[in-house]
Design goal:
The structure is a single chain. The chain has 258 residues and is of the alpha+beta class. The protein is built from eleven helices and ten strands. The protein has two domains: 75 residues, Arc Repressor Mutant, subunit A, CATH 1.10.10.10; 131 residues, 2-Layer Sandwich (Endonuclease, Chain A), CATH 3.30.870.10. The protein has a seven-stranded mixed beta sheet, with helices on both faces. A three-stranded antiparallel beta sheet has the order 1-3-2. Helix 2 crosses helix 4 and helix 3 packs across helix 4.
C-alpha cells in the first residue's frame, strides 16, 4: 500500500503519532488484519522496529491484538480514535480548569494578591498602556475588559473578526441583555456575512467602510489592533485613557451616523 508522504505527515500531526506509528497504523487500516511481518512489508517500517511500534500503538489504543496464533493485529477505526481523543482532551481540560479554580482559594494566591497590592511602586491603572500579542492573549484581554463595562461598549471591526470570536460575543450579549449597557457595533466587510452575524447575535449592526478594529469600553479605555488581518501573530494596544477613548468614540460616532 503506497501512501503519500503528505498524508502521513498530516495524520501524524492530527493524532499525535510519530512517522513509524503513522505508517504502521495506516498499513493496518488498509489491510484489516495482519501479522507483524505483513505490516512491516506493507508499511516499509523496518521489521526490527515494527514490534515496538505495534506495542506502542496498542498502549495508545490505535491497535488491538487478534486472539490466536500466529499473533495478528487489527487497526482501530479512525472515528473511534477521534472520539476517544476528544473525550481525553475534554477530561484533561476540565481537570485543569478545576485545578485553576482551586488556586484562588489557596493561601499562596492570597500572598500573591498582597504582593501585587503592596509593592514598592504599586501600579496605577490610570497610567497603564499594554501591548498585547497573539490571538489568544488579545481575546482573553478583550473578554475581561468587556466584562467590566458599566455603561457602553463600542465595537468597530470587520465581520470576519466577529465571526472568529462569535462565542465571545454571544456570551457578552447574554450579559448585556440583563443590564442597561448600550452596545454599538459597526462592521466592515461583505454585506451578506454582516446580515448572518446580525441574525446569530440578534442585534442591529451598522455597515461601514472603515478599515479599523477597536473596542471602546465606557469611553474610558480602548483596545485597538495594529494590523488589519487576524492571525496568531495579531498585535494590539490597550489604553486606559479617557481622553484618547473619547476622541476615538467621537470619530466612531461620525462614521456610525453617516
Amino acid at each position: 500500500m503506497l501512501v503519500k508522504q503528505e498524508l502521513i505527515n498530516k495524520i501524524k500531526d492530527y493524532f499525535g503519532l510519530n512517522v513509524y506509528e503513522t505508517k504502521v497504523w495506516l498499513a493496518l487500516l488498509g489491510k484489516g488484519v495482519a501479522s507483524a511481518g505483513e505490516i512491516a512489508e506493507i508499511s516499509r517500517v523496518p521489521r526490527s522496529r515494527t514490534y515496538d511500534v505495534l506495542e506502542t500503538l496498542e498502549k495508545k489504543g490505535f491497535t488491538i491484538i487478534k486472539i490466536g496464533k500466529p499473533v495478528k493485529y487489527i487497526g482501530v477505526k479512525p472515528q473511534i480514535i477521534l472520539e476517544r481523543l476528544k473525550n481525553d482532551v475534554k477530561r484533561d481540560a476540565q481537570e485543569r480548569l478545576d485545578y485553576l479554580l482551586k488556586i484562588k482559594e489557596t493561601d499562596e494566591f492570597g500572598n500573591l494578591e498582597e504582593i501585587y497590592k503592596g509593592g514598592i511602586n504599586p501600579v496605577d491603572r490610570g497610567d497603564l498602556s499594554v501591548a498585547l500579542k497573539g490571538k489568544t492573549n488579545i481575546s482573553g484581554y478583550l473578554r475581561e475588559i468587556i466584562k467590566k463595562a458599566e455603561k457602553e461598549i463600542i465595537i468597530c471591526t470587520d465581520v470576519e473578526e466577529i465571526k472568529s470570536k462569535i462565542k465571545i460575543f454571544q456570551q457578552m450579549l447574554s450579559v448585556i441583555s440583563q443590564s442597561k449597557i448600550k452596545l454599538k457595533i459597526a462592521l466592515s466587510g461583505d454585506e451578506e456575512s454582516i446580515k448572518k452575524v446580525e441574525k446569530i447575535l440578534g442585534i442591529k449592526v451598522k455597515k461601514v467602510d472603515l478599515s479599523a478594529k477597536f473596542f471602546i469600553i465606557d469611553r474610558k479605555e480602548i483596545l485597538f489592533y495594529l494590523s488589519k488581518n487576524s492571525s496568531d501573530e495579531d498585535s494590539a494596544i490597550w489604553l486606559n485613557s479617557e481622553f484618547f477613548s473619547q476622541a476615538f468614540a467621537a470619530l466612531f460616532e461620525k462614521a456610525f451616523s453617516a
